[in-house]
Amino acid sequence: MSQLYKKLESIFDFGSIKKLLSSPKFTFCYDGLHGVAGAYAKRIFVDELGAQESSLLNCVPKEDFGGGHPDPNLTYAKELVARMGLGKSESEGEPPEFGAAADGDADRNMILGKRFFVTPSDSVAIIAANAVEAIPYFSAGLKGVARSMPTSAALDVVAKHLNLKFFEVPTGWKFFGNLMDAGLCSVCGEESFGTGSDHIREKDGIWAVLAWLSILAYKNKDNLEDKLVTVEDIVRQHWAKYGRHYYTRYDYENVDAGAAKELMAHLVKLQSSLSEVNEIVKGASSDVSNVVHGDEFEYNDPVDGSISSHQGIRYLFEDGSRLIFRSLELDQR
């Protein structure tokens, strides 16, 4: 673990994070969901960075994850969600300023502010937008950024504004890995709570939490004695500068496989007649923008030239909105 700590210490300014965590104005909560991140969380956040041990939730690794589901989202990280003031009932006491969770193997993450949820799509965009200033590892600049196709276009806008190489890839970390190996990508993320950089070739939940702590430390470096710049402040400032991208995801589980395949085939067939699609859309909601393009996403890897076809059905709207349909089978390839 000492080698891991040295690696992280070379990426982040741990001195500024320690200063943030020691401020009486800043409160912190990390939920390991009884996965492997728990041991690392205590060593890094408590022993090295000075957070209170009471800041840790469910950080004793258990084979059955304590009977819970080790998925870092609003549904399964119930205890953290409640503590951060986002539960269905009133939270006891004032919620912490910053909250985070990791999944069972610590490669995915969820970021929360006081009574505020940061979508994975916004999270990677905000990390990229602030990386050069807030994270020493990126002080020389970003090589490029990438996102999975279903992730919102928030990162696209940051890339355009900062004149960065940008890549839209199929779901699957191997596509990011190719870009990183070729020196084309520094920061990347996907809609399912995975965020990472080219320090390793995998998503990294602990790294993402430290990236957010670095941004908070940078934003508060001159005003820890005054009003704290919060997670919500950072997100809203980002929206004011780059625009807001609304994102929602619906998972349909335990459905009839045959019926699901028929539905997907029908959605592909509909793309040959966008006028019919727009009639359906207008029938559901008359004020929705027109669909101007429909396809099945195909990715031509710029590194090895491989082509990945049928990576999700897309309907693209005139105002930039998108409707994406994907099958679980794609994630099992």
Automatic annotation (TrEMBL):
This is phosphoglucomutase (alpha-D-glucose-1,6-bisphosphate-dependent). The keyword ATP-binding does not apply. The keyword Aminoacyl-tRNA synthetase does not apply. Gene3D superfamilies: Alpha-D-Glucose-1,6-Bisphosphate, subunit A, domain 3 (3.40.120.10), Alpha-D-phosphohexomutase, C-terminal domain (3.30.310.50). PANTHER family: PHOSPHOGLUCOMUTASE, PHOSPHOHEXOMUTASE FAMILY MEMBER. It comes from Medicago sativa. Keywords: Isomerase, Magnesium, Metal-binding, Phosphoprotein. Residues 12-112, 121-222 form the Alpha-D-phosphohexomutase alpha/beta/alpha domain. It holds the Pfam family PGM_PMM_III. Its cofactor is Mg(2+). One of its GO terms (cellular component) is cytosol. It catalyses: alpha-D-glucose 1-phosphate = alpha-D-glucose 6-phosphate. GO terms for molecular function: metal ion binding; phosphoglucomutase activity. Catalyzes the reversible isomerization of alpha-D-glucose 1-phosphate to alpha-D-glucose 6-phosphate. The mechanism proceeds via the intermediate compound alpha-D-glucose 1,6-bisphosphate. This enzyme participates in both the breakdown and synthesis of glucose. It is an enzyme of class 5 (isomerase).
